[in-house]
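Example record for the data management plan.
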Amino acid sequence: MNAAVPDKDVHISLEDQQKINKFARHNQKMEELKDELKARKNEIQTLTDATSAAEEFSITSEEDEKIPFQIGEVFVLEAPDTVLSLIEDKKKEVEGNIKDIE
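Corresponding structural encoding:
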């Protein structure tokens, strides 16, 4: 009767456990990179939207009007052309980060 009961303990060799752990680490790293890539692509889209808004503002605004632009935790008032160049610089930086991730 007892012969039909399977062994409940699974025995894994040290070598197999190391392979499993290595796979798990690599898989976790891949998931983190995918998440980072997705976040960077969303940031590119946000910067593209900001470019459109800044271009629209520069067309519809008076000559001396300025756009609030966030640098760190502070907003500074800048001319629309300056804001557009700052956005483009940030966009290039993020695109470089995307290339590094890929």
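Summary line stored alongside the record: The first helix runs from residue 14 to 60.
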